[in-house]
Every structure is written in C-alpha cells, then in structure tokens.
Amino acid sequence: MDFSKFKEYYTKNGKFKDHFQDSVILLPMTSNIGSCDYNESCGLNGIVGGFFRNLSREKVSPIDNEADAIDRINKYLQDEIQMSDDDIKDFINIARNILCPDGKFQAIDSSFLKYYPFHSSEGKKSTKDKFLRGQEKIADYVSSMAGDAFDIDSAKGRADLFTTTIKNALQSGFKVKKDSFEPEHYYILPFVKAQFRDDFNWLLGKQDAVLIKYINSFTYFYACYSILQTLLHIDPKNDEEKEGKGAICLYSTLSEEKISMKGDAVTKGWDSRLGKDVIEKTFGRIQTIDIINFLTDSDTCIYSELMTQLKAEPFEQNKDVCEKVLQFYQTEKRKTVNSRKTSKEITIKDILTSAESYEEFVKKLCSLCINMQDSNYTRMKKWIYNLFSIGFLSLRRGKYILTVDNDMLIFLIAMITHEEKTKLKDMYAKFRSYGIIFNMNTRRIIEQYLLKLNLLERKSDSGEAQYVRVIL
Description:
The chain has helices at 3-9, 45-55, 66-81, 85-99, 125-146, 161-171, 190-204, 208-233, 236-242, 264-267, 270-274, 282-296, 303-310, 315-338, 358-371, 380-388, 406-417, 424-433, 440-452, and strands at 11-12, 15-16, 250-254, 393-396, 399-404, 422-423, 436-437, 456-458, 466-468.
C-alpha cells in the first residue's frame, strides 16, 4: 500500500475529494439531481429498447413516433424500391395499421424491439431529460448483465417480404442517435449475472409473441433484483452471509394480501434490512469499497474478495498505512464537509484511528465513510424507491414491504422453473435462490391461486407431492 499515492488521489486543492464508483460502477443512480429519475409514467418499453440496441451489432435509431416510422418507410420505398405513389400509399396504410395500431410504435416481432424509444414525459425539459437519462442508465445496467454473451440479431423473426421490407426501411439511411453509443458498464454480482444469462437464454428460446409479451417483466425484474442484491451485499454485515456467492433473502408477500405489522414481510423484509438510513448511507458504503479497491488495486464490491486482497500482504507491513488512511479520512473529510454551506455539519466524535488487523481497519473505515457522508448525498433513495414502487415495493401503514402481483408471480414461476414440471417445495427453493421468501400464509394463498388456474397438480390422492407447471 502507498499512502502518498492515496493521499494525492483523494486530495484536490488542498481538500479531501470525494470519489464514488471510481473503481467499480455499482448502481445506475447517483446523488445528483435528476441523475436517474424513473417512475411508472415512463413505462418499461424504453428500457427494453435501449437494452436491445445495446446488444445489437446493427446500430439503429429508435422510432420516436408514428410519423418517424412512416417517414422512414416512405423514403425507403421511394429511393430504394422506387415504388409507385399509389403502391406506396397502400403499403404505408397497411404498415401503419400493423406497426402503430394506437398511434405508438409496436414491435411485430423480436427484431423490432430495438426500435422502442425512451419515453419522454410531458412537462418541463428538465423533467423530460431526467426521465430519459434514467431509462438509458437502467437499460445500460441490464445490458451489463448480458455482456457479449448474446447475439440478439440472430433472434427469431418473421422473414416474409412485407416484414423484411419494413425492417430494411427502418434501418436504412438514418443517423444513429446518441443512445446507441457504447453503454456504460456496471459491475454485476457474479451470481446475478449467471442467473440472468441462464434465464435470458430460456426466454430467447420462446416464440416471438411470448418474448415480446414478457420481456418488459424480465428486464424490470432483473434491474430491481440486481440493485437490491447490490445494496445488500455492499453492507459488510449482510455480505458475511453469502460472501457474494448467492442471493441474500428477504420476505415478500402478494400485492393483494393483507398482512400484519408483525408479519415476516415487515420484520424480515425491506424495512428490516434497508429501512432507517441504510439506503441514505449507500454512498458511504460505496466510498469504503472504492478506497479499499484503490489501496489494493482491486475491482470488486464483495468483502470476502476485498479481504483476500488485503491479506495478500501481512498486516504489520501495512499497519502504518491503514492508520494514516483512517486519520487522513477522518480529519480531512470532516473539514471538507463542514466547509460546505449546503451540507449539515458533522458533529460525531472522532474515533481512535489505531488498527490491529485488516478487519478492524475495514470496520473503522466503513464507519467513518458512513457517518461522515455529506448530508446531500441521500437523493439516491428517491430514485431507488421510484423504480421499485412500480411493481415490487408497497407502503403499508408506514412500512415498506416487497410485493409481487399475480402477473409477475406467474411469470417468475415460469422463469425460475423454465416451464418444467416442478415439485412445489423445489419451486420455493428456487425462489430463495433469487432472494425471495414467502411465509406459510403467503404460500397458502399462492397455492390456492395456482389451483384456481389449474396449474397445480397432486401426484396422488393423498396429496403427498404437489407439482406446479406454468407454460407462458
């Protein structure tokens, strides 16, 4: 470890300089105003469109509206096909009815998904811009789970002359917009990335109609799932459970289910792990990770891996550096934050900056980073709650709980079982592998719902073994 190098990097104009997500970019949200705003008014098509554009080798410009699509087709038919005016008129009338039945562009097969635009909300330009940035960042975030593992361009699609002509028209001769540039690369927990790739392969293997119908649910679930697990794993106390090798479980319930304030979804769910000031202090935890990564030249957020990197050298060899880092951070961060007129003054007492082990060093560093976080660095919470509240987070009597509605439940059962006939107990075990636990009451309601849909069967009259199978 080199303290002078650390000090130089974390100093600017004689003051401590905050660095966040410099070593690894963990989340598509920052504390900046409007950095990644997103709510249900945005819809989910924009994320899907950005995601498919990121994964496509054929860089294309999204279709902003009906006129945009018709203009492209008209120009292509005139310039490239040299079709007569009457034939162009007939072709465009058919194309309009198929592509834009309600005035908005609609994918007619999976190869058209990449044309979905980011949704621009009504209102001030600043509001529109922040929603566009939010959709683009989340699309990039989900794309990071796929990496280069998928060839979207080879996905199934109709090959008839009409559809092929429209495909050529939409892609031909139009300038690629900024959102088709190289996406931001985010660090994704390894187990999340492995699950994503397995499940996306399964979904890509479905018929086009199924893929188009459920791709919104898929990308939204994985965006929330990955963000949730990252928030949990960057807390050392939580990461000790799994060491970055599996999902940390929280209790969920059904959207329509009545729950007690003493129920598992409240006492062992979202608020129990992420309530109070946990999310507000996310930047403190991220800064801890950045500092350790800088000191060890690492690129991970998993504490077991960070500790392994630290312990590659004997602690006595770096004891002096560790203590200097703690002292420097405590002194300079306090002075810097307290000098900012827009931030609340840090009033906590200094801690002893001595350390007798790497474990003690990391514990004290994390405590300092969290407790000395600038009071303005809490806006991330708003973006996270906005995203999760679309379909996974509900407020019940002042408590936030994780919820799943019936449509998402059916999709998740199909996804985690890959539509194979599965024992009920094994299905719940698969949910656990995604960090989702249901208590006995919720399970009873789920099973009643599956029976109602004729998706649950018993192997024998005694009911000793129950099987579920969901076909999308």
